[in-house]
Amino acid sequence: MIEIRECDDYEAAKTLILEYSKIKGAEACFVSLDRELSDLKEFYKGGALLLAYEDGRPVATIAIKKTNDEQAEAKRLYIKPECRGKGYARPMLNAMLEKCRELQFKEVRFTTKPEVMSIGYALYRKMGFEELENDGGTVLMRMMFD
Asked: What would the pLDDT profile of 70-109 be if each residue is shown by its tens digit?
């Protein structure tokens, strides 16, 4: 089982995000990576950076970047390869959604590449995210809050 909490170890978060950036096919998701990694706390100000721990070690991350007062962007859902298949993605997404509600966003959006992240894409659909557009294989999805 994992424990998910707000980031209290920015070096661990940086390591996970760097691992994620090296996934073949995900490169386009990292256009502002240097700026992001230079100050994670500031980059996600008004949103959140969540880390998941398994037996005390960081194994997953997900982030919420504030777009405006009503909208946020979910980013950086990453689970270490050796921890995949354990059902950690859904709790990570649920923690992100709960935090978005707590921060009083009305909508959360994110982009994904179904060709690269087909299992994640299927889970997003199953959890109720709707597809807004598909631009050359990069899909924009969202969930609205009441």
From this structure: 999 999 999 999 999 999 999 999 999 999 999 999 999 9
Structure tokens at 40: 């994670």
CATH code of residue 8: 3.40.630.30
Whether 26 contacts 33, CB under 8 Å: no
Q: What is the pTM of this model?
A: 0.91
100 closest CA partner among 60, 145, 40, 130? 145
| Number of independent structural domains in the chain | 1
Residue 65 pairs with which residues in a beta bridge?
73
**Containing domain of residue 120, as a range?**
3-144
